[in-house]
Protein: Holliday junction branch migration complex subunit RuvA
Organism: Microlunatus spumicola
Amino acid sequence: MIAQVSGNVAALGPTSAVVETGGVGLLALCSPGTLAGLRVGQRTTLYTSLVVREDALTLFGFASADEREFFELLITATGVGPKLAQAALAVLSPDDLRIAIAGEDLAALCRVPGIGRKGAQRIVIELKDKINAVGLVAGLAAPTLPGQAVWRSQVTQGLVGLGWAQRDAEAACDEVEPLLVEQPDLGVPALMRAALLSLARP
């Protein structure tokens, strides 16, 4: 597998970039966001995933390893091919996708061209349990505490994504809410940890 390509950008197209490495120009299909950060003649590193089909070997390029890993997770879902997975990452960041899948936010997933309600439901069913717990919590991080409805929603979605029942997640939020009276600047990650501790108590 070709996991990473480093070299000078030899050419840019509407949907692809050619990176010259070791005297060979490798063409990688990239999202608009990734292409926007590239310049012909400048050195770059693309995190790549090689998709093997009977009639083609296609290299997909990403600006970060996180994007590549989520791309490879998405294409394990039924009905999600490489192009649809790349479109999803063009519309939503990996963290946004984690939260949408863990929280069963079908409306967010349906923002991706090519994903309808049934497709979104299938993605949630097949990938919810595979979402990396550490990545999910990182995706909920915020430098300052958002409004009450926002933090409760994020912590609840995070707990559900980790396997807790919706009612247990909501009860945990009720338990940690008094902490905000003493420490109003608590962020979502700290509230998430407190909620997990409350759920771990017998």
The chain has three domains: 4-62, 65-131, 137-200.
